[in-house]
Amino acid sequence: MSLKPERIAAAARARQVALLGLLTARADAIGEALARTHGMVAWDRHKAIGKVQRGLWALRERRFHGLGGPPARVCERKDQPLESLLIVSALLRQGRRVHLEVEAGASAVVPELLAELRDELSREQAGEALTIGAAGEAAPDEARDWERVGVTPARPRVAAVHADADRELAAYALALSGLRRGGADPRRIVQAFVAGPLERLERHLHRLWVGAAFGPPDDPEMFAGPVEPALAEVYRVALAAWSAVPGARVLCPGGQLERPGDPRTYLAPALLRAPPIEPPPAHAGAIGPLVVLHPCEPATLDAALAACRARGDVIQPLGPEAWRQQVGTPPMAPLQPLALGRLPPGLPEPRPT
């Protein structure tokens, strides 16, 4: 007998507190797992877990109208840990059946939490509402034609620095995004179109690039941790491609960091200045702590951003509030500490330059 949406929604709502309790009780273990599988340092782990906790609390208070809808498939992605948990929870609250796919190499945290939620749903005679695939396993025949709801693969963003933007604030924003997770954050900034003077911005960036701390994920003073060994070659190729752009200038050379006694792979951040080119190099968005500054005149910034949008790039504006609203891109989560006046560990403190 097929499950009615009302039963699924009621069961999901009744067990949501239990899911929140699991997430809270296992926060330390989840953090250790993210450090082990993704090299995430302490501040980054706390941020990822806290975001899910806040989302689940908000979902707990939400009221859904018009229950039901087609069954859905959701994917827990390797490079976007924990992001599927909120989507699955919301779909169940809507009274929809859900199948969770798990990318090969993805964290096991969400499948394990949802397996316990499924057991809880079974006590409400709604266990069939949620199915969970093994890592790297294709969806079963029944679910292959279900609507794909998420997680949408993230992609690198393009920064736009307004001529009136505070140069120090812009530098910290570029560091927070471009260097996070050793350059392995899928929403990292790789290219930054900069209107107006460059000299002061470059001085701030150079200080941050040289001073950012990369090291073991269990060291709470680190800004970013190790990356998968295979990414070092991808990074090297991307760095070489950008360095070969006519007129490019290397401001910080990047490369691979050596930590005595630590066999893991750490990448040194690279910073370049290069003229805007269309199209960008083939490896423009490759993984790694690499940011390329594109100087442009204030009058040509909008045209440069239009070309980026035509390629499907997401624009991250850095500048006056009215202009950011005009550009229309929502603020990036990694930049929120700046708005609150807090910096993660491992970045040099602000100072006049």
From TrEMBL:
Ranges for region Disordered: 325-353
The organism's place on the tree of life at top rank: Bacteria
Residue spans with biased composition (Low complexity)? 335-344
Could you give a GO molecular-function term held by this entry?
A: oxidoreductase activity
Q: Which InterPro entries match?
A: Ald_DH/histidinol_DH
The protein, known as: Uncharacterized protein
- Say which species the protein is native to: Nannocystis exedens
Biological classification of the source: Bacteria, Pseudomonadati, Myxococcota, Polyangia, Nannocystales
